[in-house]
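Dear support,

Our group has been running a series of protein-ligand predictions, and this particular one with NAP is the one our PI (initials K.S.) wants archived with full inputs and outputs. We had some confusion internally about which version of the output was final, so please treat the block below as the authoritative record. The input we submitted was:
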Amino acid sequence: MKIVVIGSNGQLGWEILQQGKACGCEMKGVDLPLVDITNNTQAVNLFTLYQPELVINAAAYTHVDGAETEKDLAFRVNRDAPGHLAYLCSTFGIPLIHFSTDYVFDGKGDVPYKETDPVSPVNVYGQSKLEGENRIRSELQKHIIIRTSWLYGIHGNNFVKAMLRLGKEKESVQVVADQFGSPTSTADLSESVLHIASHIQNRTNIAWGTYHYCGRGITTWHEFSQEIFDIAKSMTSLIVRQVEPIPSTVFVSKASRPAFSALDCQQIQTHFGIQTKPWRHSLKVMIHRFFNE
Ligand SMILES: NC(=O)c1ccc[n+]([C@@H]2O[C@H](COP(=O)([O-])OP(=O)(O)OC[C@H]3O[C@@H](n4cnc5c(N)ncnc54)[C@H](OP(=O)(O)O)[C@@H]3O)[C@@H](O)[C@H]2O)c1
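Confirmed final output from the archive:
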């Protein structure tokens, strides 16, 4: 199956592309500046040139605070472009796998969110991603939207790599301790995405729709950072000695964030047999890989 991965320089798109190639799939990765999905002509050319049998869209405007001021751009990338990609997939008769976020929820709950729970984003990024989901649903029946959370991997920018850098530069760091969620490894998610791609290729009864996928277990950014330092200290020299828990009211940022955004991943297991992995285990695997590759 010919698969085009859009956003292949991003942390998730890159990992999907590497894993897909390693499994012998016929993969083509595209990203800015060569392919801009907000440019409709470039998107059409992508389909006509590569004739994909499946499109995986990992491209997004992901700067949560930046979206508060670059609202137009966030909506063009996260709402309009996925809508147009879905329209093109429908025209070409092919399916689309797309990613969304835990930030479609307001975070007022305290049990992991199910796919059917009411959405109510508290920031522009979450709203733009939600409207992107809705555009896809209205344009294309054969879609899989995977909502994920707190993504990290060896490629690209993320919280784990930022902490590893800070741990070498500072003796004390302050980390928010009142936001709860589930860290998700791009390696684990990519494996699941390729598993779904193989279902799409080999089966006819695909349960199209929206699914949740995140690492197993719930933590805070504070506990997450402590675990990062605990794992990394045996592999590299860190000078950090103190990880101070702070409330989100002290860590001033442009965008509000949900206080609780863990996701219930039962549906993806039921329909695709995908089991999530404990977040601490996946974090260890990523940090080992980071220092060894
Ligand atoms: N990161 C998280 O914690 C998180 C959490 C929940 C859900 N998600 C979702 O998971 C997916 C993957 O996220 P990620 O962390 O891998 O994102 P990422 O690392 O920011 O990668 C996104 C990629 O898309 C590219 N891109 C942006 N605008 C584009 C455009 N107009 N045309 C083509 N490519 C464009 C970016 O290029 P530039 O870098 O040059 O802009 C980047 O290479 C996204 O849908 C995101 O919303 C992420």
